[in-house]
Each structure stands twice: as structure tokens, then as C-alpha cells.
Amino acid sequence: MDTDSTSPNFIARLKTAALGSAEHPFVFLGNFEVEELWAADELGLPRVSAAGSTAVVNSMDEFALLLGGKGDHVVLKHAPDPDYHRYLLDLGFELPEVHVVAAPDPARNVSQDALADPALVATLAELATDGAHLLPHGASAVEEELSARTGVPLATPPAALCKSVNSKVYSRQLADELGLRQPTGWVCDTPAQLADAVPEAAKVLAEGGTVVVKEAYGVSGKGIAVVTSEQRLLRLQRMIERTAQKAGRDRIALVTETWVDKLADLNYQFTVGRDGSVRFDFVKEAITENGVHKGHRMPPRLDDAQHAVIRHAADVLGARLAEDGYYGVVGVDALVEPDGGIFPVLEINARNNMSTYQVPLQERFVPAGAVAMARHYPVRLAAPLSFARLRETLGELLFAGSGSGLLVNNFATVNAGAGLAAAGEAFAGRLYGVLIGPSAETLDELDRRITERLATLAAA
Q: Which Gene3D superfamilies does the entry link to (predicted)?
């Protein structure tokens, strides 16, 4: 396996892996939470999604702006704030050409918006003659339709294969096949398999343990039920069986697992080439809260033996995925137990990961010996916030190209909920960035001061 995650540059390496050459331009699509589309025809758990939260998620498309370079393209729901765009240029980024959809809908992701824009479809079609390829956050039937409509081929495997690899059912089965350690659990592809798993899971509960029932395509803390009593477990089983019966289907897509104690969450990434090669990109310590991603610590607090477990898992997983015809970015969630043991594969993500979008920043601004922490800050505003106002508020805490500070890598999410709020009504948003500094203590202090200053922007 090739390693050296820091050798420039990641996108050139990805192009070579996916297309055999770094010369082809990419058209980036930040269609975050593509799992929602993969799960559209699957039976899962009941869930609720707020319109404001959906709008913020769909505005995460702006992360893709920093993946591309000169000669590349990116499709966005909204044009970047001019001062934010200038800030990135001043930092030395060579940004891709931006194409903005004509009529963005907060409830649609960027790919769906692009399909609804005939003029943009025509513009993208012109790029096909230059050898451009679409690189979405993850490939679904929507991106395949956009590819067909524009003639711009996907730089990913078929959507059906991406969906299959991304399933938590696939992850469990593959880890079993490869002998990779994972929490005790049961694949539940049918109501009958669920019925077989429930008595085993009930034994865990009877001993004071906890189990989780997960949708195969759950994401960001959605599609997961934490179960601490047999009564709750049986109630979930009945609900799932009724849903399957009502739909006239004998297929579900769930896994049931024992809950394990952890010291830290991990996320690691490797890239599989069309030629079957596997390159380890990085491992980071993930910051999560109630199953929801909050950020990453770089580098992770792992010793050599723990690193070796992760690298071995990436090696064998990558080789096996290549056999299945998959190529491109692979992200894997793992965890560290309180005693230092590693569960190297909790789930496989056949798509970009939040940490993918941090790589260009690391390559440019996080030298050996420095530390970084990617995170987001919730904000609540009474009116849209300009980047100029944010810059004024953060002052010297905003990263300026060297030293310490917060490098903002998505500003669109700050104001994403503004269009859904009534006049004078406050709305929620998120500011995403990467804290950079010489030590963890520096980052903690920087984080505290940024939080304090952002609080001054809060809606009354």
C-alpha cells in the first residue's frame, strides 16, 4: 500500500486513481447526505427532519469549493460571499470556476438543483468536450442522471455499487469475511433475521448492556435507535415488522449491534485506484456528540501499534473493495476502547467524508509538528451575516496564512436558514472551520475565544 498522506496534492492523486491521469478537470458536487437518496427505497426507522436543518446540510455544498483547483469547476447552490471568496484567494488557494444554480431550493441538494436548471445543464455539457468528469460527494441515481443529461461522465463507480458498499450491512459482512474485529452484532436483511437477532440482543440487555439498531444508510445520527430495555427492543421489532408487512416486502436493511465503551472515535481514509492500488490518506480523531459529527483532531492520539491496526484494516479493505469493482475515496469509522484496543471498522463510507475536505488545508497550512482541529460553531442570527462582519468580529482569531487561527472552510452554512425564517424571526446556522496552531492547548484557548466572540452575534 502507498502511504505518505502529505505528499501534494490529494486531488491530483485522486484524479490519477479514478481516471488514470491528473490532467482531466473535475466538476465538483457537494451533495452531502447522499445516504438519504440511497435509503429512499429502503425500510428503516421512523425519523423527523427539520426544514432548517435540511437547508444547512444542503448548503454544505460550499465545502467542495476548496477541493478543486485551477482548471476545475464546482457547482454551488449560491455564489460564495464575495469577501469570503477574496479571503480564500488571499490565502493562496487557486479556486475552481464556480457555476451557480439559477433557482436553489433549500430542500434540494446541489445535484437536484442543477438538474432543474436547463441553462446550467447546457453549460456543463460544454465541459464534456474538455474531458471533464463529475466528482460528487457521493454518487446516487441523481448524479447519474445529471451525467447522462450533460454528457459529463462520473469519476466514480456506478451509483448502485457505491450504495452497496456504503451499506452498514456490507460493512459488517466484509469485516467478518476479512477477520477484522468489530462489536458483536447481527445483520438484519429480513424480518426473519431481525427475529433471530432480537433474543441474542435481549441477552445483552439482560446483562446490563446496551444495543443499537441502525439503518443501513443512516447518517449524521439519523436512522439509529439506542435500546436499553427488552421492552423497547420488542416494540421496535413490532414496528419494523408492521412497516414491512404494510409495504408488502420481506426485505429490510438494518444491523443490530452491542454498544461498546470508547475512548475516542476515529475516521480514516484511503483511495482505491482503478488499477486496484490502495493508498492510505490519513487517520483522524473524530469529534462526535450523540452520533453526530462535530469535527476532527489532527493528528490523532494513537501509538504505533494502534496505527498499525488501522493501516492493516485499510490495506485489506481496499484490496477487497477493488475486487468488487469499487474505486475512489473510502472513509471508514473506527473507535478506540478505554483500554486502547481498536475496533478498526464500524462502517464504510463509499463517498467523500467531512475530513476529505480538510486535506487541501492540511497540505498547505498544517506543517509537521503543528496541530489542527476541524469543528463547527452553531450560530443563531436575527439577520444574514456577511463575511466582512464575521471577519471584523473574529479579528486576529481569523487565520491569515500563518501562525494560529480559524480558517473558515464553509461560510454558506451560516446563513442557510435565513430564507426559511419569517421576517424578524431568528434562524440557526453553522460556521465551519479548521483551527490551526502549534499545540492542543493553543487550539483549546483559540476555540474558547472564538466561541465567546461568536456569541456576540447571537440573535436577541
A: ATP-grasp fold, B domain
